[in-house]
Amino acid sequence: MTGGGFSLRLAQEGEEQAIVQFLDAHWEWKLPLVHVPEFFNFYYKPDGAAPQFALALQDGRICAVAGFIRANANETPDIWASIWAADDAASGAGMELMAALPELVHARFCAVNNIRKKVTGLYRFLGYEAARLPHYYRLSGQGSYRVARIQAARILSVPETGLSLRRVPCAQALADMFHLQPQLRPFKDYWYLSRRYFSYPFQSYDVWASETGEHLLCTRIVPVNGTCVLRVADYVGDPQQFWLLGRAIDAMMREAGAEYVECYCAGIPPEVMEKAGFCARGPKDSNIIPNYLSPPLYENTEYYYAAQPGETVLMCKADGDQDRPNIPVL
Prior knowledge:
- The chain is α+β, with helices and mostly antiparallel strands.
- The protein has 2 domains: 2-107, Gcn5-related N-acetyltransferase (GNAT) (Aminopeptidase, 3-Layer(aba) Sandwich); 132-316, Aminopeptidase (3-Layer(aba) Sandwich), CATH 3.40.630.
- 22% of the residues lie in helices and 28% in strands.
- The strands form 2 sheets. Strands 1-2-3-4-5-6-15-7 form an 8-stranded mixed beta sheet, with helices on both faces.
- α4 (93-105) links the parallel β5 and β6 (109-113).
- The longest helix has 13 residues, at 93-105.
- The mean pLDDT is 95.
């Protein structure tokens, strides 16, 4: 594919080092995603072949790169855009590459999680919808908190009825316990769910399926300050029906002895989250629900995301290259 004097194509096997060198030259710091081999291989080489990057070239020289992550193994996959960088000397290369990324990958749908607020305008220019990723939490009500900083405690009631959750013991049990939800954007298949939550090289997750098999919840318990926090990393199911899990999540939080449970997610209506027992944390909220916990950073963190327009997008904390440990590169 060509445009604006640039040649646009997918990366080929053996171009990994050239991509890393380009990012080192055109990013503000060394990225763990490409310098930690386990990260690079997990996110960008899931099948061990060519790296999942698109390139813009001019006279054979790389002038922009865009990494992407597949949400499913379909021939027309849903993808998250990940690392995106361009050479300032090649005017327009980065925008052209990102505009062409879905077509290059033959993607049905493209989104990106955790973008800088200042680049939301660039994604809107490219036709994406861009917004703040809502943050929700539910306090345990234990009175005092070591991790959260609570100025005004608010504890909502949880539904008296709902669905129970069963632990999915292994990747092989997914197909028996959970029905795929192809109507969702992005569509996450068994290939993705198995890799992301049962074979992740750095963190362990607990995976839960509802008794009906129509809802999947992925959580992890984060020990901190002699207590712990329950994090909802992913939810796959009807956004309008999330409230059916409210009672089960509350019981999970109490069984773990967690200070609170928190969740970054877009696509679930605020009134549904409230019905499930979750409070929304606004950008100017006086309560602090830390995002960074290892070690804890006592401030609120805002996430922004972008997605191609259309039906409702269900975006969660662990989507794309997020919910990963912060590993410094020396």
